[in-house]
Amino acid sequence: MEMTKLDIENYQSYFFIGVAGAGMSAIAQYLSGIGKKVSGSDRYFVENGNNETRKKLEAENIKTFPQDASGITDSIEAVVVSTAVEETNVEYALAVKRGLPIIHRADMLAAITETKKTIAISGTSGKSTTVAMLFHIMDYAGYEPSLISGAGLTTLIKQGKIGNAVAGKGEYLIIEADESDGTLTKYHPDTGVILNIDKDHKELSVLHEIFKTFKQNIKNTLVVNQSQWRAKEFSANRNIDFGYEVDCGISGRSFKQSGYQLYFKVNGTDFEIPVIGAHNMENALAAIAVAHEKDISIEICAKALENYEGIYRRMQIIGEKNGVALIDDYAHNPVKIAAAIRACQPLTQRVIAWFQPHGFGPTRYLKDEFISEISSVLRTDDQIWMSDIYYAGGTVTKDISANDLIIGIKDKEKQAFFVENRENFPFEIKRIIKDSDIILLMGARDPSLEHFADFVFKHFI
Fold it and tell me: Are 9 and 33 in contact (CB under 8 A)?
């Protein structure tokens, strides 16, 4: 698949194949926000269908089409695709036939980053949350930053938006820089952040080379987590340090979680943030470190984060019934799942966690890590439930089941259960649910998970 590199001003009319995806929709909205003519298609768009994302894209002046090539009109100057779009796609084939430039999502984002002072947040965990926290701080401080992220900010969703993009008037652009497909190496940001590095989509040796290139590409400031040794290895003379209980530039101390609030100190200043989980304190420390480097005082950061409202499907509280709370989270790799469960534990004596793995390849690749991480975090009363692996289509070897993970966790003498059809989950736990339990739903990539959370909330009691 040959891709075209570009200057953002090369074209005025763009068509996105797969525009409803989190990464694609953010870029499409940003381009529309700066005055480009943007349209796109998605396989989830069907005529007369009730698609919320489609309506929100249309509200941002992005014309949408079903994925049948009807949207690739004579006015289209360039086509944007992601790695999920194959050359056999009917719209991709038509673009090639017409000789239209085909631009990869990451190349499009790389071109956008050259137009602003870009802050690129990287790491295998916490990118979306750190992006959201930093955007919240800088917006509160009057910087009017731009945003391109993989998850919607609650404050923006409340305005009727998807919430993952803002074309701000200020000089800064905050982006989520993804390592999973190697595109992290395409960006040359003014400021780069390395949160953490753990085995996820790639082996650690491969990730090391990706982050090494990312570090070399940073134009000015590198911000590094000193609390995670793999990230710390990338420290440089030009970096700003942050971490918990370590001596560095932005040092978090006295961490405490009480209810749904985090409390800690940063260089002597008290912070109170309405989120849960020690991992979210580390995300906040990263955002504070960047903001402080951009001349925002630690006191202003504290004031801003008091009113931070979180992001879509990141420890999102769906609701509470009869003393039982339901929380929905995007956790999908072993480290993230363990962190999400750990974040809920101070709230209750029993966490009932449910996880839907995505992709047979990733599940097979991380099988041992899933079993080890989940087993190690579960307390005696905690439970983990899993349902069938989410299959997004394509050619794949279906030689592993979520039940293989459950069997492995059971072998570690932890409470683990397989419920093949996820719609049976709320009815299964209905028999055992008790006052003060926390139900934690986890999974990624499957666009129907949002509706599944509503389904569980409706039926678990």
Answer: no
Sheet holding 102-104, edge to edge: 62-66, 37-42, 13-17, 78-81, 102-104
Q: What is the pTM of this model?
A: 0.88
Residues 6+ apart with CB under 8 A from 314: 128, 129, 151, 329, 330
Determine how many CB atoms are found less than 10 A away from the CB of residue 449: 20
Helix or strand run (H / E) with residue 287: helix 278-293
Rounded Cα distance between 215 and 198, Å, is 17
Question: SS3 letters for 10-73?
Answer: HCCEEEEECCCCHHHHHHHHHHHHCCCEEEEEECCCCCCCCCHHHHHHHHCCEEEEECCCCCCC
| pLDDT tens-digit map of 249-266 | 999 999 999 999 999 999
CATH level 3 topology of 316-459? Protein-Tyrosine Phosphatase; Chain A (3.90.190)
Sign of CA dihedral 115, 116, 119, 125: negative
pLDDT for 447 equals 80
Contact 160, 324 (CB under 8 A): no
Residue 315 and residue 312: Cα distance in Å, rounded? 8
Give, in words, the CATH class of 8-107.
Answer: alpha beta
Rounded CA-CA distance 101/191 in Å is 30
Q: Tell me, what amino acid is at 120?
A: A
Please tell me what DSSP assigns to residue 192.
E
CATH number, span 116-305: 3.40.1190.10
The token pair at 266 is: 């940063």
The length of the chain, given as a count of residues: 461
C-alpha span between 183 and 193 (Å, rounded): 15
In angstroms, the CA 118 to CA 329 distance is 28
Domain boundaries, given as residue ranges, for the chain:
8-107, 116-305, 316-459
Tokens coding 76 = 């289209």
pLDDT in tens, 220-232: 999 999 999 899 9
Residues 6+ apart with CB under 8 A from 388: 356, 401, 402, 420, 421, 422
Nearest to 390 by CA among 360, 365, 350: 360
